[in-house]
Amino acid sequence: MEIESVVLRKTAHCRKNFDCLRDKNDSCCLNVPVTYCVGAKILFVKCVDRLCQYRMSYGHNTVCNCPTRLEIYKKHRK
User: Fold this and answer.
1) Domain coordinates of the chain in residue numbers?
2) Which residues touch 32 (CB under 8 Å, ≥6 apart)?
3) What is the pTM of this model?
4) Which of 2, 20, 22, 25 is 20 to 30 A from 9, alpha carbon to alpha carbon?
Protein backbone atom coordinates (compact mmCIF):
# COMPACT_ATOMS: atom_id res chain seq x y z
CA MET A 1 0.00 0.00 0.00
CA GLU A 2 1.16 3.49 -0.78
CA ILE A 3 1.23 5.82 2.21
CA GLU A 4 2.79 9.28 2.13
CA SER A 5 6.14 9.62 3.88
CA VAL A 6 4.84 12.40 6.13
CA VAL A 7 2.26 9.97 7.54
CA LEU A 8 4.88 7.26 8.01
CA ARG A 9 7.11 9.67 9.93
CA LYS A 10 4.20 10.38 12.27
CA THR A 11 4.05 6.64 12.95
CA ALA A 12 7.59 6.47 14.29
CA HIS A 13 6.68 4.22 17.24
CA CYS A 14 5.29 1.27 15.27
CA ARG A 15 6.42 -1.87 17.11
CA LYS A 16 5.18 -4.10 14.29
CA ASN A 17 7.59 -2.73 11.69
CA PHE A 18 4.72 -1.57 9.46
CA ASP A 19 3.35 -5.05 8.81
CA CYS A 20 0.14 -3.39 7.67
CA LEU A 21 1.90 -2.05 4.56
CA ARG A 22 3.11 -5.41 3.34
CA ASP A 23 1.02 -7.79 1.27
CA LYS A 24 0.38 -9.94 4.30
CA ASN A 25 -3.15 -11.10 5.03
CA ASP A 26 -2.17 -11.83 8.61
CA SER A 27 -1.25 -8.26 9.51
CA CYS A 28 -2.43 -7.72 13.06
CA CYS A 29 -3.62 -4.18 12.48
CA LEU A 30 -5.55 -4.91 9.30
CA ASN A 31 -7.25 -7.89 10.92
CA VAL A 32 -8.61 -5.61 13.63
CA PRO A 33 -11.99 -4.39 12.42
CA VAL A 34 -12.83 -0.70 12.56
CA THR A 35 -16.17 -0.39 14.30
CA TYR A 36 -16.60 3.25 13.29
CA CYS A 37 -14.70 6.37 12.36
CA VAL A 38 -15.41 9.83 13.75
CA GLY A 39 -14.73 12.85 11.58
CA ALA A 40 -12.24 10.91 9.42
CA LYS A 41 -9.80 11.33 12.31
CA ILE A 42 -10.63 8.90 15.11
CA LEU A 43 -10.85 5.14 14.61
CA PHE A 44 -12.71 2.96 17.06
CA VAL A 45 -11.48 -0.61 16.70
CA LYS A 46 -11.98 -4.04 18.22
CA CYS A 47 -8.56 -4.74 19.60
CA VAL A 48 -6.93 -6.35 22.59
CA ASP A 49 -3.31 -5.53 21.64
CA ARG A 50 -2.11 -3.71 24.73
CA LEU A 51 1.46 -3.41 23.46
CA CYS A 52 0.63 -0.96 20.69
CA GLN A 53 1.43 2.61 21.63
CA TYR A 54 -1.26 3.91 19.30
CA ARG A 55 -4.14 2.17 21.06
CA MET A 56 -6.00 3.62 24.02
CA SER A 57 -9.07 2.67 25.96
CA TYR A 58 -12.08 4.93 25.79
CA GLY A 59 -14.79 3.62 28.06
CA HIS A 60 -15.57 0.11 26.86
CA ASN A 61 -14.05 0.84 23.45
CA THR A 62 -10.59 1.03 21.95
CA VAL A 63 -9.34 3.98 19.92
CA CYS A 64 -6.56 3.59 17.36
CA ASN A 65 -4.43 6.73 17.04
CA CYS A 66 -2.04 5.27 14.46
CA PRO A 67 -1.62 7.75 11.58
CA THR A 68 -0.80 4.96 9.12
CA ARG A 69 -3.81 2.86 10.13
CA LEU A 70 -6.09 5.88 9.77
CA GLU A 71 -4.72 6.60 6.30
CA ILE A 72 -5.23 2.98 5.24
CA TYR A 73 -8.81 3.15 6.48
CA LYS A 74 -9.52 6.40 4.66
CA LYS A 75 -8.06 5.12 1.37
CA HIS A 76 -9.18 1.51 1.40
CA ARG A 77 -11.90 1.19 4.07
CA LYS A 78 -9.94 -1.65 5.66
Assistant:
1) 5-76
2) 45, 46, 47, 49, 64
3) 0.85
4) 25
